[in-house]
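Problem: given the chain below (243 residues), write out its structure.
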Amino acid sequence: MLALGSMTLGSMPRIAAAMSDGELRTHREAVQRHADVIELRIDRFARHDAAYVADVCRAARALERPLVATVRAAAQGGAVDLPDAQRLAAYQAAVSLVDGVDVELRSPLCAPVLLLAARHDRLTIVSHHDFDATPSDAELAALRREAAQLDGAHILKVAGFAHSQRDTERLLDFLRSRQARDLIVHAMGPHGVASRVFFPLLGSLLTYGFVSSAGAPGQLALSDLYAELRRYSPEFAAAHADR
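Solution.
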């Protein structure tokens, strides 16, 4: 199994709280109660210079949760359109202060961020988001091949917009048919809401919740996601009984 800091992934569902710098300051209690992992969405920070990014990462460590640094490209759902050089500088500022990084599989930054993470022995997520449709079976297979060919890529994350229940089922088939590839998979949109709860029960390594506003269509509030996983996963409920 893979480890994110001191946390083992794959033994039970795990919730990541996708957070901006402002949310880190105002929602500490909710995160400590309901989140297993904090995804630092650096693209949503008020500033993106290296010194500020490092300061926020240091402050986030006080929450005592594994941290994943993400500087999402605008085309893949990022809050702002940052130049690649600025995005890479943000990763460089964060990498020694976090436990993992997430970078887009087909981004020009993918290879340099994976190399940077390897130098610091950090977990890596290579991701692909389609906000218009669910990738076809052929496209899903291509994403898997591309991720498998990358040195230092530990987890492939795939999110597609589901226009029907069949789209969600196709993503579930992809999740369940994986071949020696650790995956995070979910469906976006109204048809995909259930995937946020049930895909983690079936092997998806992380599911993402929000604390103030949804960052993607169909994303659930952190507290709601926590309650649903306690309801459906005995392992999750037992591990979180003291919160």
